Amino acid sequence: MEIERLIKLLKDNKELNVGVRLGILLGLYYTRSAWFKELLEATRLNKAELYQHLKVLSKSGYIEMKYIPTVEGKRLKVFITKKGDEVVKEVLELLK
């Protein structure tokens, strides 16, 4: 049954058990990347909370974070990785 596979997937990937993290990953799947400020606005979390969620996703290999120089100074940009792509595809397939 698909629901059992989805639950197992989320249990096996504990980093995705938090709805916010799964939501961030789903959003990045469609946008490919986002600025930290965009994620702040989308999630409505405070900076520290968002950064903690991003660190967990980054440490697990689902996203990559890079500081990119802009005219306003260095800004944090978040990119989905191949591993992140694969897990989102699996989640979406199970939700069909």
TrEMBL record:
Domain of life: Archaea
Gene3D superfamilies, per the entry: Winged helix-like DNA-binding domain superfamily/Winged helix DNA-binding domain
Entry-linked InterPro entries: WH-like_DNA-bd_sf, WH_DNA-bd_dom, WH_DNA-bd_sf
Name listed for the protein in its UniProt record: Transcriptional regulator
SUPFAM superfamilies according to UniProt: Winged helix' DNA-binding domain
Domain Winged helix DNA-binding: 20-96
Annotated TM spans: none
